[in-house]
Amino acid sequence: MEFLDSVPIWQLIIFTYCMRIFDVALGTIRTISVVQGRIPLAVCVGFFEVLIWVSVVSQVIIHIRSSPWLAVAFAAGSATGYAVGIMIERFVALGTSVVRMISQHQGYAVAGALRETGQAVTTFDGEGRDGHCLLIYAICPRRQADFIIKRAREIDPNVFYIVEAAMQVSTLRALAKQTSWRNMLVK
Prior knowledge:
- This protein is an alpha+beta fold.
- The chain is about 60% helix and about 20% strand.
- Helix 1 runs antiparallel to helix 2, helix 1 packs parallel to helix 3 (about 70-90) and helix 4 packs across helix 5.
- About 25% of the residues are buried.
- The model is unreliable at about 175-180 (pLDDT under 50).
């Protein structure tokens, strides 16, 4: 990157800070993609992450004697990049969530309201510390989890809920397709 040799040091410091934010944000997204098993996305993001990292590190090593502020910019960019990466990941909200809710008194109303919005909901009768309750399960894209909780709390403000990441999800339609008699003959 010879063009950076003629750049004033203060511009190199800003460049280092900005590129490090971008690099670390990509690293955060790559890590989450790996955890979720999104291999093609992780590979593509990882390529650009490392390409940027090598470019920035090489410039810091070359110019560190002339300005120790490059090290500060590198570290500050890393710290800021973690926050930016998390914010991007929350905005994109990749993946599937399992929303589990427990309602003491309004469970059937909560389940009905969620079904009216098109959400697939499964209910189970349960027994808690204070007596009968209804367990409500919904599997949804992560983007929809907040909506489901908000809708449930509109009906039952005391609903207890847990949101978990789902690693693998199958649907009954997909299962039925795999086990149909036509597919069995093909196998």
